[in-house]
Every structure is written in structure tokens, then in C-alpha cells.
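User: Predict the full complex structure for these chains.
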Amino acid sequence: MKQITGGATAAKGFQAACTAAGIKYENRTDMAMLYSQVPCRVAGTFTTNLVKAAPVLWDRDIVKNSEYAQAVVVNAGIANACTGQEGLDYCQKTADQAAKVLGIPASAVCVASTGVIGKQLPIDRIMAGVEALAPKLADGVEAGNAAAKAIMTTDTHEKEVAVEFEVGGKTVTIGGMCKGSGMIHPNMCTMLAFVTTDLAISKELLQEALSANVKDTFNMISVDGDTSTNDTLLLMANGLAGNPEITEKGADYDAFCEALNFVNTTLAKMMAGDGEGATALFEVTVVNAETKEQAQVLAKSVICSSLTKAAIFGHDANWGRILCAMGYSGATFDPDKVDLYFESKGGKIKLIENGVALDYSEEEATKILSEPEVTAIADLKLGEAQGTAWGCDLSYDYVKINADYRS
Amino acid sequence: MKQITGGATAAKGFQAACTAAGIKYENRTDMAMLYSQVPCRVAGTFTTNLVKAAPVLWDRDIVKNSEYAQAVVVNAGIANACTGQEGLDYCQKTADQAAKVLGIPASAVCVASTGVIGKQLPIDRIMAGVEALAPKLADGVEAGNAAAKAIMTTDTHEKEVAVEFEVGGKTVTIGGMCKGSGMIHPNMCTMLAFVTTDLAISKELLQEALSANVKDTFNMISVDGDTSTNDTLLLMANGLAGNPEITEKGADYDAFCEALNFVNTTLAKMMAGDGEGATALFEVTVVNAETKEQAQVLAKSVICSSLTKAAIFGHDANWGRILCAMGYSGATFDPDKVDLYFESKGGKIKLIENGVALDYSEEEATKILSEPEVTAIADLKLGEAQGTAWGCDLSYDYVKINADYRS
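Assistant: Here is the predicted structure of the two-chain assembly.
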């Protein structure tokens, strides 16, 4: 497996375009289209929020019932959530319009929206946007990058990754793009992420690989504990790599899962590190746990703790808050056995041993915590499993961004 | 039932004292003692955090195994949590010292600590503090108020309440004090709260009343979602009111429960409204639910949402975040039936009907949200049950307070 430049257009046959449709923002692109020159197998995972945005209902139906998908239309600025029948009608209209200009069935067009909840989409601008997008579709790194920029809301930078790997003597490419960066506490999926590959694989295995993988990647990040109404992760595979179709588990499937895991982990970490107001990516790894689930529950509880996040922002080695967050996680462990470390490019330091503080240097701890990527490692000394979660610090800017997001 | 001035010393026979022991803070009192002139029945609820501070273990043992309690020694500044055997030994030493100076058994002395996790108590100062406290014990409102001030950490004001009610022709008094104001997400109890009454009641009914009541009061508040290692709620009843002892449920027990509910609700709301950095008390009431549990789960999910809290800070009627938080709460309801209102001293406004936005005035909504106490009311239209939760907004000061709490 080899990382290459690019994102959602890295795999063969995938094209992208973007346009400034004037949905909410001024002077920036805010609509994107992703298109495959041939029909794709499509898998997806969606928000578990009981309040599901209209595009989530639309895409879920396509993933479940359509034979294939071939395009995705995305807008930033308005989420099309809590919009009733009108919101659902707008999904249909958007897909119909894309179907018309692309010459494909509406049942092959996924839609995705992100932004303010409760406002109706300016459907005339969306329709004009779709019409503007189709002729702009282009291959290559630049088109993918521009699309990754167009789907951002409070993100500070675009998020893309791509890798190549081998299946049956053929080079297969998988890449993707995603956006955050608030209301991020994915549960079975994440805000908006689109992963594309030219792999040939059965629909069943494509979905199985994705569903298994999100548990370790997108579901292990949190910015603010708020599971969005719009979380959508789509994985499209168009088969253009020319490999013999993967129809059963084995070495080829494993190679795909490894590449998928790299892509999803990278995108998820980018999203966590670019959380609203974040100054640092905060990684928590729990090692020597009895089970992976136990390790993941503990790690996720720590990255969700407001107090711990504020301490990370302050470069303060307030490890008591980490033990506290592990304690209320719901997972069992023995607090009197726990060792805890902080690690970053600034070094590694052991803070507690068997649940009690060591006589560590606060100065060194602060230096380690002043890096833009910080890891806490909790050693449970109970078994051999481990789990990792990713979050970010809690800063003044998180409050600023969200105190008056709508205006 | 009638509200009166005072707090933990309002009921007959209860005395309090405070002193500046120099545990962590300078130029302020930081230790308090609560004492009953006669032995008390004692009930308690404690943190469900797996990581339990030493004083929690000590008090839990007393509530379970001691025939009676007669004093509580409290310190602010250091939590005596994650302190191993040394921390447990310090509870014993503190209780032994109090027992000696008060002439009561150590098994009648509860201890409570709040502050930084992981530091050992300066036990010599604690011992000197206990010695200084005993001769200062005094009846009356002033002594109770001074004690309520001494147990504060990041609280901006002391928290007290007291009421009188009648049982068997006798006037019974119940009052209490508590402190917050970060790491507040009580689960079966709260940070530190001490409620005293001169009621005569069996130990079993005292505990039963308390355990039932915390579910509707202290367990329904949250400042930051972090369940502390030190949460302790003690309820002491010394029988000096002279009523016939309550030994079974009936009108007298109900009158007590009503008074207890008023005291605990008032203290809990004070704690929520004085949450770290808070500029507003944020109340959420869910009405016309199928069950009380459903209403409480939904209400609590909303007051815990960082995004909603930031919007309240910004006086922004971002109701989509409220519906979103209800949606990920885990409770079921029909989003398409929900009506939502904001209410405060500034007025009442209906924002959404049947899950979709009305054409309301943003200006009026902002006016209503600019009050120091704001209520959101969600009408599920499913049944007749209701539930309320209390939280606060998320401000810059929450981040400021917690980015470098230890220094």
C-alpha cells in the first residue's frame, strides 16, 4: 500500500466539479458534484440520530435499493434537516436535475447537505448549481481538491487522502474527501465523507467492509459529542481497476480493508484535528485491555470530556480528568492498576503508575502537551487488546464559532 | 411548606464552623464542619464513577454500616481522589481527629473533599483545621452561610436553602448547602451537598426518600457532562423537631418528600445556574411524553449538548440543535410531532410546530434568550408525562477556568 496525492478523484473514472451557488456563503464555492464514468457499487453508513435529515433518508434508500449509484451532489450552508415533506421533495428535485444533465437515472444520484438545521434549501439556486456543475466535471487531483474545499463549513482546510494497493496483479486506487467540523460525534458514520475506489468488489462485501471499518475510524472521533442529523459516509466502487471481482473474503479482501482503514483513519483524524476551534489533535490509546470494545469505550470517553479537552487547550497535564472520564465511561477496569503517559513530538512522559501520581516534571509535561498532536496512553494491564479514539481540545474559538453560528 | 432563610444550620440542633486552613487557596476559608448536637440518622448517595475518591469510600461505609452520624468535615482545594492507600489513611486520620475534639466516635464522622484530583491532602493542615473548627461551631444562619462559602471551589456564590413544614403538629425544618461548579454531571448524587433536618424518621425511609428524589433533582443537572469522582450527597436527620418518628409511608412521609424535593431542586438549580463560566441557567422541560423517563432522557440530552449550550450563550435561537440533541438521546419520539417553545421573563415564543420551523421573530427570540434564566419546552404530543433538566450555557469563561485550573 502506497499513499499518493489526491482524494475522491484519485481512483480511475471518478470526476469532480464545484461551483459557487450562493446557498449561504458569499465569495466561495459551496456545491460539489462527484461522478463516476461508469456505474458504481455503493455502500453507506448514516447517522443514528432519530432526527434524520432529508438527504440521509434519500441516500439510505439508494444504498439499500438501487442497483448502482453514479453521482453525488453536495451542498454546504444548509443541512436540509427538520424540513418536512418540502425537504424530501427537494432531494427528489435535485436528483432529477442531476439525472437529466448527466444522462443517468435519478436512482443513481446521491445527495448530501451540511449546514444550518431547519432552513429550507433555496431550491432554484440548487437547480442552477447542478446545471453549472455537470459541464465542469473533470478528472485529476485539482478537481478533487476543489470539490473537497467546496463542501467545507467551519472547516479550516480541505480533507483528502488516497492510496494505491495491488489486487490480482492490478493496481487499485482508493481515495476520499470529508468535511467536519462541528456537531461531530459520529455514530455508525460521520458528518460527510465520500470515498471512491476503482476496485471490483461485490456490493455485499463493499458494505461489510465499510460497516466493520467505521467502528474503528469515524465512530472513534468526537469534536463536541453532538451526533449530527446529516452524518453520511458513502463508499463507491466502479471496478475500473480491472481486478477480478472480489466476491469472497481472503487476501484480496484483506488488502482492500487495509487500504480502506488507512483512508478512513486518515480522514477521521483530519476531521478531529480540525474540529471547531481546535488547536490540537488529541489522540487517546488504551492498551493492554481485556477487549477492544473496553479499550474503545474508555478512549472515547476521554476524548469526549469537556474538562480534559479544556486542559489540553491549556497544555495542562491534568491527568485526574482523564482517569475521571475513564471512570464514568461505563466500562470496567481497575483504577489502581492504570499507568498513564503523554506523548507527542516533544517527547514521552509517564504521569501515573498504578493509579497514583509519579513525581514527574510539570515543565516537561507542558512541553509535550504544547505540540499540535498529543497522545495520551492508558495502560490497563489487564489483557492484550487496544483501542484508539481521536478528538481535539476545547478552545475559546469553539464557543465563539457556536455562540452565533447562524448569523 | 414555607421557605425560610438559612441552609444547613436551619434545622434544630445543627451547627457549623469554617476556617482558613491553607489547603490550596490563599486569603479565604477552605474547611467547614457540620455538627449535630445529637446523633443523626444518615442517608447518602454517591458518585457512580468507577474511580471513587477516598472520602466517598469512607462516607459510603458510614451510611451503610454506622448506626448514626454526627459530624461532617469538608475541605475545598484538593479532592483526595486517585490518592491510593495514603488518601484512605487521611480520611481515617481526619475522622479520628474530629472524633477526639468533638467527643464522638470516628464512625460518626463523615468527610468530604473537592478540588484537584491526584494531589495528596496536606494532612498536617487538615488536622490543625479540624482542631480550629470544633470550638467555632455555632448555631444560626450566619454560621451556616459561612460554611457554605468555605466549601466553594469555582462557584461564584454560596448555595443554601431551607423550608419549614408540619408533621404531627410539630414544625419540622429541612435545609441544605451545596457547591459546584465544574465536573458536574451527577449520577445518583452530586458534587457536594449536605442536607439536614430535625425530622424524626427511620433510617430506611430516610434513604428511600433521598434515593428516589435525586433522580428528579441532582441527577437532572449537568454543567459539563463530567461525572466527578467525589460526588457526595448526605442527608442527616436528628429528630429534634419532636414529631412522632416516621416509620411508614403516608401523609407525613409525603410532606417530608415534598420539602426534600423543594430543597434538593433549589440546590440543584443553583448549582446548574452557577456552572463554571455560566451566564444563564438553562432549563429544559419535555411535556406530553409517554413516560417520565422518556421526558427526562430527552431533557437531559439537550442540556448536555455543547452546541446548544454555546447557542444559549450567544442568545441564538438555534432550535435545530435542540431537536438534534433530542434525536441522539437514545429515547424514541416522533420528530414530526414536536412543538418547541422558548420562555423566560422576557416572554414566550413558539419556534417550531410538528417538527418544522414557524415564521417567528428572531428579534423577539433573542430578547427572550437574553434573560439569566431561560427555558426550552418541547411538546411531544404523545402522552401526559413530563420531565425537567437544568444546565447552563457554554461560555469563554468555562474554557478559561478549565484550561489551567490547577495553577
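Chain B has two domains: 2-271, 281-403.
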